[in-house]
Amino acid sequence: MDETTNINWFPGHMTRTNRKIKEILPLIDAVAEIVDARVPVSSRNPQLSELIADKPRIVLLNKSDMADEACTRDWIEFYKTQGIKAIAVDCKSGKGVGNFINGTKELLSDRLEHYRAKGMVGKPLRIMVVGIPNVGKSSFINRMSKGSKAKVEDRPGVTRGNQWFKIDNELELLDTPGVLWPKFEDHIVGEHLAFTGAVKDAVVDIEHLAVRLVSFLGKNYPEKLKQRYKISFDEQFDSYELLCIIGKKRGMLMRGGVVDSERAAIMLLDEFRDGLLGRITVESVSFMGEDNAEF
Ligand code: G4P
After folding, report:
1. pTM of this prediction?
2. Which of 32, 167, 197, 290 is 20 to 30 Å from 186 by CA-CA measure?
3. Which residues is 172 bridged to in the sheet?
4. In this structure, what DSSP letter does residue 148 have?
5. Shortest CA distance to 163 belongs to which of 175, 153, 171?
6. Is the CB of residue 292 below 6 angstroms from any atom belonging to ligand 1?
7. How far are the Cα atoms of 7, 224, 231 from residue 248, in angstroms, in the given order?
8. Coil, strand, or helix at residue 253?
């Protein structure tokens, strides 16, 4: 049971999105990239750096309420070493989102200064918000714009179906014109996104996915697993057996006393996604291999 999960992906028309983003670039001052703080590598679009070229970028580690705080701090430090400003946010409660405005104005202080010096008073900073599906892009935009409608104005990039949101007199947000996908051909990426629920269960083998999650949790967060399910195991655990032990603890038995491992799998994944096992980061900074070293 230890081969990797095979996930079917539907990449969509990335070329169209890429073209639209390129069209938009001259209109914006910076990019706000939203990632899932639990899987900051897998929840990125691998082409983004190339796409946005040298536009300043601010990274929002969203869903930080569900991520391991120490790992999130490491990620912020990591980004700093790359010259990128990263902020931990929780768009569900709103925690940390307030730091975005100041963080962005700080990041673009030269540009704001330039606008002021040129007498371009009232010219706002324009930020394009990007992120793969499910990272919390809409939640973030809704929080920032406080539900105010997108403005429609007669200027290039505004009328062509792009959604601009006025945040204050100095800041406007633009929703991504299209869909950005993760690195869908990489099965580890698919698996990690499936752990978080970003990939729908209909396209994965749920039992196998749960076994992989047990394997990860047993190695990286054994105490959380032990506490949640009141079980004990040592370092040599077998992941499938452990899933069955968890199912048995929850009374998920079929006729003949056999554990219903599929029910156990669904339960474990649901509880993990609901944060009931605690704050867990699947991809810490050390997860980032050579392939992902380019931010
Ligand atoms: P998207 O536009 O990038 O596709 O993502 P969206 O905002 O729709 O968010 C996807 C899911 O993630 C939503 O849950 C949303 O509530 C949740 N979410 C967004 N930000 C955060 C966060 O910081 N913390 C937590 N814990 N959850 C967050 P859903 O189950 O699809 O809907 P619902 O629970 O809002 O009904």
Report:
1. 0.91
2. 32
3. 126, 166
4. P
5. 175
6. no
7. 28, 18, 10
8. strand
* Ligand 1 binding pocket includes 279 (Cβ within 6 Å): no
- Confirm or reject: Cβ of 138 under 6 Å from ligand 1: yes
Question: Pairing between strand 57-62 and 164-168?
Answer: unpaired
Pairing label, strands 125-130, 171-175: parallel
How far is the C-alpha of 272 from the C-alpha of 200, rounded, in Å? 15
Residue 129, beta-bridge partner list: 32, 175
| Whether the CB of 182 sits within 6 Å of ligand 1 | no
The dihedral through the CA atoms of 271, 272, 277, 279 has a sign that is negative
Question: Which stretches does DSSP call E strand in 93-246?
Answer: 125-130, 164-168, 171-175
Residue-wise pLDDT for 198-247, tens only, equals: 988 777 899 999 999 999 999 999 999 999 999 999 999 999 999 999 99
Nearest of 97, 77, 93, 73 to residue 85 by alpha carbon: 77
What residue's CA is closest to ligand 1, atom 4? 134
Nearest alpha-carbon partner for 214 in 72, 5, 9, 8? 5
